[in-house]
Amino acid sequence: MPSQSEITEQLAREAEWRRRLNVPAFACGFLYLLSGITISETLKGAPTVGLLQGIEPALSGVANPAVSPRAAEVKFISHHSLPLIAGSVVAGIAIAGLTLVLLLLVDATRFRRPESWRLARPLVLFGGIAVALVSIGHQVISALLTHKFVVGHDFSGHAVELALTKGTANVVSDYLDLLAGFALAAGMIVAMLGAMRVGLVVRWVGVLGIIVGVLIFLPIGGATLEIVPAFWLVVMGMLYGGRWPGGDPPAWTTGEARPWPSRADQRAARDAGGDAALAGAGAGGGAGAVPALGGANGTSSSGKRRRKRGARK
Q1: Domain coordinates of the chain in residue numbers?
Q2: 300, 292 contact by CB (below 8 A)
């Protein structure tokens, strides 16, 4: 158990970091959403190759056409590489902010529960930095390869695949992106489970954070679901800024684990408190009797129930 002085020092550090991170968390939420909109709107105008267009050369008796039907797609990406890179840079900044938010949660959780998984912090740190850098690097590589395609003389299907998917640089960046995304997602899921366990976040915020980790690893839904990580960051900005409805969760102010009771626990506590008050009243009460559930005026809920029963009689 940490001493009172250690708890005081820890709470002071956490308060300072929360003060530093609350505005960046808000901003990174909007930046993450902006990055998704920028990239999706840019790619919306990209030419698409349908099934008939793809097999048209083969139907004409040309197995390997000199100009692939997808050549226009590569040229489009090359000509719009600047907004794509800009969108990735904005996303990288947002991921960096998300990483800092998670690191504070991991450290605060570990202080309150020392047996928490030690690898959560390195996973979040490595995964967050790697995801931010790889997302930017992938777009830079794509810009270079597509530009090389445009200024070259080979527009065949093989050249298209090298520019978009099968080039060595593309393959390496894809594997790095997969590894980084897995590390960040695993670290985030563990961090949110731990934060819920010690009471640093309410359950729905923790569950939402777990969903965000899954979406980072499996970016399903495109730009539409990118509002989920953006919303989570804004929510964490509210929490870190001391703007949480009803005040900070008790774990932030006590420096100790204060898990949120389930509805069943709350019901059991209310029932147990009511029974204790009735038992005290039946024994005659007295100056030492303390109501288990008192309102603002000091009247117990069990007393109210007795008066209601008396009125009905």
Answers
A1: 4-254, 263-312
A2: yes
